[in-house]
Model the fold of this input.
Amino acid sequence: MTTHGGYEPVFCTIVPPHVLDQLAQAEDPALAGPARRTLQRDAYERTQRRLTTVIGATAVTAVADGTPQRTIHDARHGTDLPGHKVRGEGDKPGRDATVNRAYAGLGATFELFLQAYRRDSIDGNGLPLNATVHYDRDYNNAFWNGEQMVFGDGDGEIFLDFTIPIDVIGHELAHGVTQYTANLTYFGQPGALNESLSDVFGALIKQYTLGQTAAEADWLIGAGLLAPRVTGKALRSMKEPGTAYDDDVLGKDPQPATMDDFVRTGRDNGGVHINSGIPNHAFYLAATALGGHAWERAGQVWYDVLTGGELKQQARFVDFATLTVKAARERFGDGEELDAVSKAWEQVGVRTL
Done:
């Protein structure tokens, strides 16, 4: 449970609304149609999430024994959740690669949090991990709805299967970790921190799975998700925010890397998927300055802040940055970790108190 007296699950998607809005205006109906239907479906699911928050979600039995409890369902291109069960914990892989990737991605996320941070599942108490694949037709998104993961197959024109990038799976499940801990408000700077934390742990899950150091990692979120016709390499870049794509249809990646280019907007819940580029870049700078495996030191500091109980739901960048400096000092002392974290925030223009 959260340290803030009760959590409010939010509906979080990997593809930002501003990207789908851009696609929905395309002249080609093969591009605009799926984007419009995805926006409509997202709006419906977002409303359902609000209703569930009001009336309460179904109770889930968890077993905190340090092993994952995964279940994969197949929506068979429908929208009823969770769909038909196709693989349970311990079942052998089947012929459906999408099912197998979802199962593996849930496991990789569970393993990172358990092995690196001694956290038993996303709630810290062995919560079962459920996912649904083949959701709707040409659905251009993946989301965490407060209870489970859902993956679309993409339209094949702009987006491919959403189970392909393991960091997409990790990103969405990390929203669950935030839900059960700091419960950051999903608007403005707190919402951007919410999104950034999911990018951070999504990136760490990919790096942990591949055994990569900070120097070896690509620091891309959603690499492999964009179809060949798209001029771009991923949804976001933590190394170089604003450079992930520059496409005739998708437009240009709008993420800023520093506070000098902070975007003020009422769209996308106050730009949560846009301004997340700033804390994303701060983490990249801290992690690469320290070197080695990013989950061991920089990731530990970020995890300590997320789960430490001091991060308020309405936290702004300065609040989060200040807590990372405090956490670095408390865990590692006045050494290179503290120096790397402090300098990273300074480089992106976020002061620390």
Summary: Confidence is low (pLDDT under 50) at residues 1-7, 52-57. The radius of gyration is 19 Å. Residues 29-55 form the longest helix (27 residues).
